[in-house]
Write a structure and sequence with these properties.
Blueprint (H helix, E strand, L loop, with lengths): L5 E11 L2 E11 L4 E5 L6 H9 L6 E9 L2 E4 L5 E4 L11 H11 L9 H7 L15 H13 L5 E5 L7 H16 L3 E6 L10 E6 L2 E7 L2
Parallel strand pairs: 3-8, 3-9, 6-7, 7-8
Antiparallel strand pairs: 1-2, 1-4, 4-5, 9-10
Length: 218
């Protein structure tokens, strides 16, 4: 694993069809945090996540990945592991093949975790050779989470990672994300579900493309 990674957002503006959809003057996200982004659909959560990943290019301002005062660079998808809202899986491949595909695309330098071990941890042991299209929505969601964790990313970004899960699997997944943050990584989770704030070190509330509230866990 490389140096500790911090995300700094400065004077960020994102527009769509000339309309401003996101404005974040200043935000700093530290390694070791699990940051919850809460807000309704259209509040800007996904746009902010995708900008941090480098999937969306800001119209103004910048998102920088900071390893030291002397080493700053623009956000890049290869520095982060993303769990997208639509899972981003290949339906015709097996569970294990989807996890391995994520590894082949990864260039972030993290240590690789055994696939079977991760699948057991997310409650999918015995399903490694099952085609993804044969799985339930909740099982597919857990495959996407296992794929992200498999590369031990320094920054893990998850968009609604528990939306398809029952209470037991929601707790299992959130505890995994907590453990990943506690290992010195940055985890950012966006959700409608207010209960994820129980696991967060810091919660950000978004509305109309702006951060309108911040709460630090006591």
């Amino acid at each position: 694993m490389g140096e500790v990674m911090t995300v700094e957002v400065t004077d960020l503006v994102v527009r769509r069809d000339s309309m401003q959809i996101l404005s974040v003057p200043e935000l700093r996200l530290e390694a070791g945090e699990l940051v919850a982004m809460i807000g309704p659909s259209g509040s800007g959560k996904t746009t902010l996540l995708h900008t941090i990943c480098g999937l969306v290019r800001p119209d103004e301002g910048r998102v920088e990945l900071v390893e030291s005062d002397a080493h700053r660079r623009s956000a890049d998808l290869h520095d982060t592991a993303l769990v997208p809202q639509a899972f981003g899986l290949v339906a015709a491949l097996t569970v294990a093949e989807n996890v391995e595909l994520g590894r082949k695309l990864w260039r972030g330098g993290g240590d690789l975790h055994p696939v079977e071990e991760l699948l057991a941890v997310v409650g999918l042991d015995g399903l490694a050779h099952r085609l993804v299209r044969e799985l339930s929505g909740g099982q597919q969601q857990r495959v996407a989470i296992a794929r992200a964790l498999a590369v031990a990313p320094r920054i893990l970004v998850a968009d609604e990672p528990t939306s398809e899960l029952d209470a037991g699997n929601r707790e299992r997944v959130m505890e995994l994300l907590v453990a990943h943050a506690q290992a010195g990584n940055l985890v950012i989770v966006a959700a409608h579900d207010q209960t994820i704030t129980e696991y967060a070190t810091r919660s950000l509330t978004l509305a109309d493309g702006e951060i309108v509230g911040t709460e630090i866990a006591r």
